[in-house]
């Protein structure tokens, strides 16, 4: 019926964007695009593979939960995201691409005219060609040169200099002088050189910006939609939704199961279990009762609770961590990128050289015009065409290679920094371990016990229940038929099976025994009770990531000592340090981790921080470079420079290797570019550089640099 | 020389046409998903027709 309504009465379609991180292949595209429209509310769907997003056109008033369920039915996890956030990000590269397109068009047309001049056009024909070139080149330079002119002007106004200053001066001087040449019927005009320079440099800029877009949209697509408010009860007992910005202390909010708390507060009604992993990194859910303090950002996984707000917004514990993260990230933003460091040396040297050439020829008595022409030739030939491409070309090729093997790179400087690290620090839970408990002794249970456990567990949202459900379903167990299902938050879930009371949880109806009887070994466990007697105990472990041992060993071989910093207690960390042979610091607060990293950095070390939780956020931001697994918390992913997918730690080694390879290719590119200058500058100084030679030298050196960078395509192996 | 008067505007016009086409494709978002475009060639048949068939079949 709904199908009919949709077809007969086409309502205006509404567009929503969803992030779907699991899109991996062509099959996923067709599965999503063809599968989603089967849902009655969805009119059409379009996958963007690059950004791992899906644009869904759906009928007005469609339920987002239904659409997300439609994704889930196809086996994809989807999160709704704001549409505008992506568009804004890409504007920058789009305008660069447009400038590049204009410069490319102009370059080709001017080159056409230039070829005629080089092949011997004389007199009025040459003049006409020069004028035509000028007519194309000048508007192009005005349009395409803006990114460089504005940045150069900004640098000069603040008394500094950057790579854009010699570029701008070179381009403006070259076109000014060429115009003068043209007007005075001179033989040499450098319009083609000036425009080609812009084209190559814009290519470099655009590559750089595309890489950052990709990583950023990758990160946004990983970010989950967090609740931005809560249901609040007023004095009359009515409840209504209040945006998180409008929440005030002393308000009472109802937090349903599965909701995140938007503010700090105290529980005034109900008892539940809270998932604190976002704050503490600990995977074990924590029981909470009336009068307990609860923190914003924690996830309620038990039953509904009423919370009286104590702290809001910037005063919450989570905001405190965010502030620490911001401060820590500032030290990183002071990192000077290789290209900028090169520019600092390069720009004054080039200007000095041009000035010397000008002065030299004046002293030799060549006249202002001739001397200026030589000086401009020097500026054009040394303009950092190849240098501008040297770094971004290498970095984008590496980033592409890493992305194909499931590693996202936030920006180019991250690769530069990763190549310099000399020690690694791991978080434990969720980083070295999977961060999800797995039952270990299910094969000891009888088939009936398994069936009962499955039917109970699949009715609970508790992490252990979820893990149990998953494991039992993998074993192809079919659930038993039960009734009277009742979950007692924090205790367990009970039901009736063939008139027998069954219960899955820690203790059956016996709160007093909630003492450290069976969790003294720091093992997670739960019991199946039948008729009040425990018939089976399921033990869970948080498994190490499969290749953790190899990776730690490989890091050692690479001369990068690794150690652990964990928020967990020493007892929980000890077995892992023993197994991996690493040193560890335990029971650390976010502030402690941050302070420790700062200490290492001040001692001259370059630290690679690998972590996942919000509690690692400040440390991730402070580390010289940082990585987070794809399963990390939003805060962790935001703070990290690299995000790797999958269950293995091998990507860490891959990324470090790739970063080091990139560094050496960048160095080679610089050597090539400088070698070219050593060859070409004397030609320019002695006045042999005609527009033809300038064009050949510039394009030749740029192509060599790009070709060299392409060697990095296999860097992620 | 006379040839040039005709040929040069034609050359420039074609160039401008190319630039206009580039801007058009850019505005239409054809460069938004370059990796996806490379994969879509592997998909069977015309997406739209197939989608409609599926839709009919599902009713």
Automatic annotation (TrEMBL), chain B:
Swiss-Prot/TrEMBL keywords: Membrane, Transmembrane, Transmembrane helix
InterPro entries: Cyt_oxidase_maturation_cbb3
A Pfam family recorded for this sequence: FixS
Keyword Flavoprotein appears in the UniProt entry: no
Highest rank taxon of the organism: Bacteria
Transmembrane segments: 6-26
NCBIfam families per UniProt: ccoS
PANTHER family linked: FIXS PROTEIN (PTHR41532:SF1)
Name of the molecule in the record: Cytochrome oxidase maturation protein, cbb3-type
